[in-house]
Amino acid sequence: MYQDLTLTRSISHEWKRWIAECKLQNCPDQQLVDVLVQHGFDTKLASEEVANVSADPNYQAGEWVAQKLRKLNRWQKFGRHCQRFLPHLAR
């Protein structure tokens, strides 16, 4: 009997990694779900996988590091800004 492959298709490691990378770049969850659906995944499965990524301890650790890097980047930009306007402090 014919079975719809999009309903039984599982999400590969590569797709899960893509979801995590996009989430770390602050892509909206719905946008990720839409892309997965466009690539043949069931909407329910796509929504569940996108939600599951946030609950994964490995993702949470990566998110923590990404937040620290963004904060460091902001401080570096601020430091460059200060050096431009207050060059005597850069000595």
Explain this structure to me?
This protein has helices at 5-8, 13-24, 29-38, 43-55, 57-85. It has one domain (13-90). With 91 residues, the chain is mainly α. The radius of gyration is 20 Å and the shape is elongated.
The gist of it:
With 91 residues, the chain is mostly helical. It has one domain. The chain is 75% helix and 0% strand.
Could you report the average pLDDT, rounded to the nearest whole number? 85
- Topology, number of strands: 0
How would you classify the helix and strand content by structural class? mainly alpha
Q: Supply the number of structural domains.
A: 1
Number of helices: 5
Encode the helix/strand succession as letters.
HHHHH
Measured by DSSP, the beta-strand proportion falls in: under 5%
Helical content stands at over 70%
Distance between the termini: 77 Å
Taking all Cα atoms into account, the compactness measure Rg is 20 Å
* Coarse morphology: elongated
Uncertain runs are 1-8
Instruction: Summarize the main sheet.
Output: none
